[in-house]
Amino acid sequence: MKRRLSRTEEFDIMKLVLDKFLWLGFGIMAFGLYQLFTLDFSNGLLLIIAGAILLIVFMIIIVKEYEMIA
Asked: What is the structure's pLDDT at 29?
C-alpha cells in the first residue's frame, strides 16, 4: 500500500521543488546577463528571455497545482 502525505508534507515538498526551479531560472538569467555584458548582446538577451519564460511556466504550474489542492 502507498503512504499518503499530509497537506503540510505536500506543501513542504512543493516548497523544496519550487526553490530549485527558482534557482535554475535565476541562474539562466544571470548567465544571460553575463553574456550580455561580456560577449554578445543578442545571445545574452535570448538567455534572459528564456530564463524569464521558464520562471513564468513554473509559476503557472505551481499556481495550477496549488488551486487543485486548496
From this structure: 92
Question: What is the model's pTM?
Answer: 0.69
Supply φ then ψ for residue 6, to 5 degrees: -80, 170
Give the 3-state secondary structure of residue 6: coil
Contact indicator for 32, 47 with CB cutoff of 8 Å: yes
Q: Assess if residue 52 is contained within a domain.
A: yes
| Confidence at 67, pLDDT banded by 50, 70, 90 | low
What does the pLDDT read at residue 69?
53
**Residue 1 maps to a domain:** no
- Domain count within the chain: 1
Q: How far apart are CA 38 and CA 65, in angstroms?
A: 39
Choose among 47, 43, 45: nearest CA to 26. Answer: 47
